[in-house]
Amino acid sequence: MVLSKKVKPLKKRTTLARKLNTPQVAGYVFILPFIIGFLVFLALPILLSFVFSFTDYNILQSPEFAGLKNYKNMFTADPKFWKVFGVTFYYVIFSVPLRLMMALAVAMLLVKNTKLSQFYRSVLYLPSIIGSSVAIAILWKRLFASDGVINGILGFFGLDSQIPWLGRSDTAIWTLIILSVWQFGSSMLIFLSGLKQIPVALYEAAKVDGATGVQNFFKITLPMLTPTIFFNLINQLINGFMAFTQSYIITQGKPRDSTLFYTVYMYQNSFTYNKMGYGSAMAWFMIIIVGLITLFLFKTQKYWVYYEAEG
Amino acid sequence: MRLGLRKKKLIARGVYHLFTLLFALVMIYPVVWMIMGSFKSTSEIFQNPEALLPTTFSFINYKVGWQGFAGYTFGLFFKNSFIIAGLSTLGAAISSALIGYGFARCDFKFKGFWFACMLLSMMLPFQMIMIPQYILFNKMGWVGSYLPIIVPQFFGQGFFIFLNVQFIKGIPVDLDEAARIDGCTIYTILPRIILPLIKPSLVTSAIFSFMWRWDDFLSPLIYLSDPLTYPVSYALKMFSDPTAGSDWGAMFAMATLSLLPIFIIFLTMQKYLVEGIASTGIKG
């Protein structure tokens, strides 16, 4: 006790500069922008949006408490809500697995090292770099127009070339799914680097045991890639549910809302009809759905994701 | 007669390349078709949609498209895009490097908590917070300006922070300690030792940031209303609205131009793009 009292005045003399130099303080100095940004642009808005979801708010007048009205309307009185939820779910359930399968298949094709590997990789990666731009959305409209490229090519091969891809509800959504699958490039790169990390010794041992290519794939390649697949899956699922530009520009939800994505409907409610409260409720519903799916995947990963023994 | 082993290998290789090349060409065909379409007349785009090469190369679409709409040329929209993407990139790259350094090299209280917050910010998409953010920026009087788009970038972006943390952790701590013995502090080690060494992660965050901001359509859609302030992405959508079905040639010309900066980055910076994706798994 006596000792600590003696030390104290000494501590007081430590200058501010010295204090700033301890990792304790310096750490906070460096991450301060993040803390501010996180609180102001993320934590505060997300909390506010939770509060707004229980109000009627048209942004011009101050919000009015409405209890569970928004949620009640959403679940029981707005058939369009379930429609867009179903459309988005359909889009995600097809586009994400197809994109990942495509990425894996092409990655396996390109893992072989040849003089042209670099070139193939570049060409196949490009769509994922530009795929979400407005330019490509406009292009997609023309590709799938009744008098567009796809029908033109079908006609060239003497096939049915009168399909109104964007005009039918069963085909319009698939033009968006195809656009998403087309952007498999970045997942492909991740799989490629995953494939290269699989020890060659495993395949050599399998060869000695007389394993076939198919066995190799299911017994070695796929299990060794599950951590990569897991990471990709979560990322792509979230992105899938958030898809906006495609639906907003290419199909505008047409025909008959069969391609109206959740985020677009949320945008319309909030910014076109000025129903900020309803939009907030929609956002929170989606956060919970995506959160639950992510949680489910994390909880079940022990059954299918293979991690090498590590410390 | 049985084929020799060498011959067999040669055929297998030929089949492999033929297949892969064909597949790559099919995948890239739409983009090439659009670029070629920008040199065709609109009637040609409609009459022979399956054709790739234009009968005559003409730059008239570029001339017409450049005129833009509502009295504003695409020159203005490009300038706006460069301002938005440029400033955002500057902010995101620098702040993320500083924050990454803090996470990677300092031990402080609640570090685990803040790191978890950072990961959370990576997972939480913009779409989920756009409504309250809009309300917030509306209260601040920022709606209609670039501030809501640019300012948040100056407070670090999860992916880039993560990238920098990974990268800085790969630099031996011995270097820091040697510098400390020579009289460096935590603050001077960053510019003198770390910054020169993390050039790859800085460049990677910068190019991804630039590409994402350049392509961004949703935030201009929400925050901007005056054509004078439109970036290329949003202007292109507006341009396509009234002209839909009429001047596709001009639209393709401007669409191609809007992708030009991305193409240039893609061709010159591919090493960084590939490494960035492989090391963090970020989307492209």
Shape of chain B: flat
CATH T-level topology of chain A: MetI-like fold
Structural class of chain B: mainly alpha
CATH architecture of the largest domain in chain B: Orthogonal Bundle
Please write the string of helix (H) and strand (E) elements of chain A: HHHEEHHHHHHHHHHHH
Cα radius of gyration of chain A in angstroms? 26 Å
Helix/strand/pairing class of chain A, anyone? mainly alpha
Give, in spatial order, the strands making up the sheet with the most strands of chain A.
1-2
The SSE string of chain B, one letter per element, is HHHHHHHHHHHHHHH
Determine the N-to-C terminus distance of chain B: 50 Å
Q: Major β-sheet of chain A, in short? A: 2 strands, antiparallel
What's the overall geometry of chain A? Answer: globular
Number of strands of chain B: 0
Specify Rg of chain B, calculated over alpha carbons. Answer: 24 Å
CATH architectural name of chain A: Orthogonal Bundle
State the helical fraction of chain B: over 70%
- The separation of the N and C termini of chain A measures 42 Å
Low-pLDDT residue spans of chain B = none
Runs of chain A with pLDDT <50, length 5+? 1-10
Mean pLDDT of chain A: 87
Provide a short characterization of the protein structure.
Chain A has 311 residues and is an all-alpha fold.
Name the features.
heterodimer, A: 311 residues, mainly alpha, MetI-like fold, two-stranded antiparallel sheet, 15 helices, 2 strands, disordered N terminus, B: 284 residues, 74% helix, flat
How would you characterize the overall build of this protein?
The complex is a heterodimer of chains A (311) and B (284). Chain A has helices at residues 2-12, 16-20, 23-52, 69-77, 79-110, 117-130, 134-143, 149-156, 169-182, 185-196, 200-208, 213-241, 245-251, 262-272, 276-304, and strands at 55-56, 64-65. Residues 1-10 of chain A have low confidence and may be disordered. Chain A has a two-stranded antiparallel ribbon with strand order 1-2. Chain A has one domain: MetI-like fold. Helix content of chain A is 74%, strand content 1%. Chain A is globular. Chain A has 311 residues and is mostly helical. The two termini of chain A are 42 Å apart. Chain B has helices at residues 5-37, 42-47, 60-66, 74-105, 111-123, 126-139, 147-150, 158-169, 173-181, 186-197, 199-215, 218-223, 232-243, 248-268, 270-280. Chain B is flat. Chain B has two domains: 5-64, no CATH class; 71-280, MetI-like (MetI-like fold), CATH 1.10.3720. Chain B has 15 helices and no strands. By secondary structure, chain B is mainly alpha-helical. Chains A and B meet through helix 3, helix 5, helix 6, helix 7 and helix 8 of A and helix 1, helix 4, helix 5, helix 6 and helix 12 of B.
